[in-house]
Every structure is written in C-alpha cells, then in structure tokens.
Amino acid sequence: MPWGMVGGAMLVSLLFSIQACKPKGVQSAVSGDSAVKAYVPPGKYDEFYNFVSGGFSGQMSVYGLPSGRLFRVIPVFSVDPEKGWGYAEETKPMLNTSHGFVPWDDLHHPALSVTDGIHDGRWAFGNANNTPRIARIDLKTFRTAEIIEIPNSGGNHSSPFITENTEYVVAGTRFSVPMGDKVDVPIKTYKENFRGTVSFISVDQTSGEMKIAFQILLPGINFDLSRAGKGKSHGWFFFSCYNSERANTLLEVNASQKDKDFIMAVNWKKAEEYVKAGKGVKKNVKYAHNVYDEEKHIATSKMENEVIMLDPKDCPDMVYFMPCPKSPHGCDTDPSGEYIVGSGKLAALIPVFSFTKIQEAIASKNFEGDYEGIPVLKYDAVLHGEVKKPGLGPLHTEFDANGFAYTSFFVSSEIVKWRVSDLQVVDRVPTYYSIGHLCVPGGPTKKPWGKYVIAYNKITKDRYLPTGPELTQSAQLYSIDGDKMQLLLDFPTIGEPHYAEAIPAEMIMKNSKKIYKLEENKNPHAALGEKEARVERKGNEVHVYMTSIRSHFVPDNIEGVKVGDQVYFHVTNLEQDWDVPHGFAVKGANNAELLIMPGETQTLLWKPDRVGVFPMYCTDFCSALHQEMQGYVRVSPAGANVPLTFSTGDQQ
Amino acid sequence: MKHRIVLSMMWIALLAFASCGGGEKAASSEATAAAETGTTDLGQAGVQDDESQKDIVKVAVGSADHSTLVKALQQAEYVHALANAGPFTVFAPTNAAFEKLPAGTLDKLMQAEQKDALRNILEYHVALAVYKENMIRDGQSLGMANGDNITLQVKDGKMMVNNSANVVAAVPASNGLVYVIDAVLLPPAK
Fold first, then answer.
1. Superfamily assignment of A45-509 in CATH?
2. pLDDT for A386-432, tens place per residue?
3. Residues B28, B113: one domain?
4. Rounded CA gap, A209 and B39, in Å?
5. In Å, how far from its chain's centre is CA A556?
6. Taking an 8 Å Cβ-Cβ cutoff, which residues of chain B contact chain A?
7. How far apart are CA A589 and CA A609, in angstroms?
8. Which of the residues A482, B27, B82, B105 has the least number of beta carbons within 10 Å of its own beta carbon?
9. ipTM beyond 0.90?
C-alpha cells in the first residue's frame, strides 16, 4: 500500500506543521506514528463502529474507528427535519408520551445488545434522561424501532444498561419524585413523600419488543449509573446512588455531606421469583409504548396503564446497599463479573468490590445496619480493595481483556490505567479536557475487543478552531495495544457525547439492510406502482398516493386542492436500489421534508393556507435528472369548483 | 469475481479474530485484515450488492445474448458510468446484432487506438432519462450521450430505432431501462 503510506506520511507532516503553530506543550502527548495508526485510506473500512450518545441533541451518532469519521446520526428522541423523523405522519407516534408529543430529549447512554455477555450486533438501546424513556434501535436499519416511556420516574439516568443475555434493560430514577395518588405535596416534604424506582424492562429475544416487567420501589435517593452482573454475578444488577442525604435543594452542597453513599445490589432473579409469586402490587400509571412497524413503515403509539411494583419490605433478600465513598457516579463490572468498581466523583480513591465477598457478607448477614429498611453491607466485608490516589474525580471505568481497567478522571483530565488484580496504577494519559465517559470496544462485556480507549470530553477550549462561545464537543482516540496509552486522534462529535460503545464492524455490516422490498411494503397508503398513483378527496382531506422513481413523481401535476384542505402526500419510493432515497418537499409546508428509503412509504401533511400554484420537488439528489424531479399543486379558493385532477406527462 | 474471493477471505480473517478475543496477537492480525477491508478500486460496477434490483450493467452481464456488448463496454471503459444512478435508457444490441456489422468492423473497434471511436458508438446507444414505451411517439427524436440524436419509429405497437434496428424487448433495471435491439446503431457520419 505505498499510496496509503504516502497519505499517512502527509498527514503526519501536516499534523506536525499544525502543531508548530500551537502554544507549546498543548499537544506534547502526540507521538510520531499517531496519524498512521488512525488513518484509514479512502475506500477502506474502519475496524469498529462507535455508537456515541448525542447528549442534549437527543440522538445517537455512529462513527468509525480508528478514523473518527461520522457515518450517521440516528434520530431517536428528538425530531430530525433532515430525515422527516417526527414530521412524517408515520414517525410522529414514535415521540408520543403520556405528556403528548415531546420533540426533544437528552440521550446519555447507548447499550449494545449481548448474548452470553458478548456483543451480538442486534440492537442498540438508548435512554431519555428528561422525559424518562428507553429506545431500541435496530442495527439492521439503523433506525429507532421502539420507544417505551418509564412511569414513576423523574429523570432516567442509570439506563439503559443490560443483562448478560439482554433479558432486561434497566431504568432508574435520577430524580426521586412523589408518586401514586399523593403527588401534590410540598417539596420540603421530600424525605416523607419522594421515592425512587428502578425498572426492569424485558426484551423479547425474537422481536426485541420491550415490556416493563416490574419496578422496585426505593428510598428517595438519586440513582446514577448501573451495570449488570455477568458470569458469576449474572442475576444481579448494581446501581450507584448519591444524595443518600435526601436533599431537595442545593444538592451541590447538601448532597455531599456524607462520607459514603451507596452502590445498590439488586438480585433480579429473586425479583423475578417475587413477581411470579404475586408479591408485586399493580399500580395505575400512564405511559406510552411506541413501536415502528418495519413492514407497514408506520409507528403506533399505545398508552399503557399498569406496572407491577415490588417493595423490598415485602421482598427480603432482593436489594442491598454497599457503602461507597463520596457520591459515586460510575458503577462498572469487570469482564469476569467478580469486581464492581465504584467511582466517587469527589473521592480520592476507587473502591473495588468483590462479588464473592458480597455473597459471603449476605450469607453471614454482615450488615452495618439498614437504610430505610434495606440492609447495608459492611464496607470492609465486601471490598476487594481500593486504588489509592489514582487521580481527582473518578467517573467511569472500562476494561480490556488483559486484566486492566481504564478510569476517566474529570477534574484531573486524564485516563488512568490500573490492574484489577492488585489495584496498581500502571499508566496515565492526559485528555483535552475534562473527560466524562470513556469507551474500550467491548469494554463493558465479558469479551472486550480492546485495541483502543476513546475519551469523550466535556470541554475543548483551545483544541479546535474557535466557533464563538460554544466549541465542538470532542472525542479522543488512544491506542492501548502497548504498555503505554498513546493519543492518536481528536475528532468532533455531535451534541454532547456521554457514554459510547464500540463493536467490530463485521458484526454489524453483514446484517445491514440495503432496501425495503416493495412486495413486503404493507403501508396502507402505499402506491406500489405508478398505476396505483392517484389523488382522492375525503371531505376536506386530500390524499395523494404518489410514487417516486428516477426521475419523476406520479402524479406531478395536481389541481382541485382548496384552501383549508388537509393534503396528505403518501409518497412511495419505487426504487429497489441501495442508497437511492428520494426526498419530498412542498412550498409552505409547516413541518419538514420526507426522506423516503427505497421501497418505503412516508406521509407528509400539508395545509395550504393561500391560493396559488405551489412547487414540490425531490430533495435528495437522486440522479442526473434530479433537478427535473418536480411538480406543481394548484390551490384554489375554498368554495371553488375546480375539479380534482392529477397527471404526469401526457397521461391524464 | 476475484476481488469477491479476496474480500470473503478477509471476512474470514475478521471472524477468526472475533472468536479468539482481544489479545495483542489477535489484535494485530485483525488490524492487518481491517486495513485491507473495504471497497475495491473498481468503481460503482464493483459494488457488492445482491439485494437491490440489478442495474443496467448487471442486466447486460447477466444476459447471454449481450456478451459482445459487455466486452465492448469494458474495452471502452464505459462500465462504471452505466452503473451510476443515471437514469438511463440504453439500446442494447445483441451478439447477433454485432455479427451483422461488416466483417472486421468490430475487431478493429476493439483495438486500443480505436477506443474513442468505440466509446462514441456505445454512447450513441445511451440516453440520459427513462423513456418508457408509453411515452414514445412515432418520429420522436432522442438526444444521446455522444451528442447525436436518434429517431424512434412506432408502428403497430412496435418500436424501431433509426429505421434500422428493431426493439425486441424492454428490460427494466434499477437505474433505467434497457431496450434490446437487433442491430448496432451507427452515429451519423460527420
């Protein structure tokens, strides 16, 4: 590959020449072969897909590693006019909630499905932090296939982490809230009236469809992050908890009073038994469950009204607390499932708990007391050990396959590599700046793929060309092949990246869908050929059953529409060719475009507000005659007697 | 075909990596495989895609009656253009049509120094738009990719080109329409 090497060498020299202009010391961590290691020649594929949360964009983005190239932004919880997501009639129900249509959210954590604790490439899940929801993305289509709302929750942060065989994804309340019948209460009655919950949402192993299996009613503390047990700890789930002070104001100070908060250990197999034994109480709630039908190309939103609630008071041996220093944030289990790492945001050490010791302490009832009726295990009894003075502000930990852990430190802006067995720090690298989450490919699974660690930074300051008060969000790629971590690449990200996962490209690309087959299109408004194209009036609704194919619409001339009509353009893309979507837009539409995949049908609602002739056109450059792919709609006054007609070419 | 085999070997290498975990040795062999995994430099006609409807090139390649045309398209380096989004209307002479050319004509056109002339002839068979049968009127003129025009005749529901070639079949393709014709169209002399 002499040509690729030349390109790499050019990049290297480019990097160095740019460095020469930077203030001294800023990029001293970059060594000579970084560019070559991150360089993917044109036309060559990346080794990994990197699924990155979009944070306050509400979406999930897909990058390649090691190149850092952005492939796709998958619309999840926020409307996306570019793709018609939340604008097309078919996708609007996906954003329905018990609060009605919610066009935005804050997606913090992706979780890739696993079988036997190993990535399987079927689905990615994501959480909505604001209006609590969990989404499932189908990795064959890279489209959000399902969104389920979480009732009895205020802020779904410790989510959507998953069990070893994707039996469950979880949700947990970051903000405890009053729930049930008594919700109009003074905020200062927090301690009496506010409660937290964690939810276990089962996943159908064939369809992927989610269902809230049960919720667990908990004291009014904040649940932050979580991880399932795996291997020997399969059947357990661990949640970090802060604000055990149960403060309801100025948490910055008031939730930092105690030396220790908790990691909560949930025996979910036990919880399953209690549900089967009828120990759960049915609670009346209201939450939306939205599913996108791949054959009909239509989402439906169903309002559900019941969940099963387990109260630890009625269900002994199901929930335990373990003391954990200083407002723990990350809560991560190592590939063996033996070690649970808690990361106190304000702590100067990292406690590592032992699952074996947890079981021993439970068996011998080695408790230091209880917290709101839930047993608290003795810290020393369950501790494997502490990583001493690792850095300042530990947040999250990922693992490689060789017994090492990688912990991010927000305050000291660094990644620290340490050995799980003897808790010794072996390496550290700076990040630029203020790292939040980090990702090792396969890092949360039983089988880490390793090779890289990626830092997702909260602040970039002088790392990129300035773009006003807000700078791009950023990721940084480090090689972890050698003893020393090596910075390879900075790359910008959309929204604010929180957690991310990476998976070998081969596990996804082989399944990727190319087209929707027309013969499988069951959309009730589809026109599966130009002969089916037509315009029909039903009262003041006008339904245009339109087809698009290179390079024309049928019909492309429509008359007889009147001011006050509601015009539904049901556009079927007749193409059966990979990567040939057609778009559709009409002047004055108060929503967005449609972007219609090959073989798919999507619907745009247009309410013409004035008399005239309005152009419509294909928005996605589809062919050499894309600019010719256009048409007109004539709109007449409300009482006009212009007959409804439609045509294309000379066919009337 | 050759690159397809190479590609699948790479996938096997990747799979082997996937099954032996993230050890350093495995990681480095995977890196080698990954660096070589990707598209080929063949252009759009080389895209691996068994799901989509066949494009014009694949239709021609799949037709036993069009092996001469395919060879000519390859010789003129005109394959990738016809795998493009188009849309095209292509008049595709059969092997028998090429045989009707005066003896030696095709052999001469297939020589390296005649590439431009061959390309000009092939472009005279390609229109940039989809002209379905029901859109075509008797006497209609179409501008072809080489800049010259053809004239279409429609009599008793049958189509002819330049009063010389009969349209014997119409085959839809993902990126346009192929009309199979029984004679090679020759651009007007200049």
1. YVTN repeat-like/Quinoprotein amine dehydrogenase (2.130.10.10)
2. 999 999 889 999 999 999 999 999 999 999 999 999 999 999 999 99
3. no
4. 35
5. 39
6. 11, 14-15, 17-18, 21-24, 27-28, 30-31, 34-41, 47, 49, 51-53, 55, 84-87, 128-130, 134-135, 174-176
7. 10
8. A482
9. no
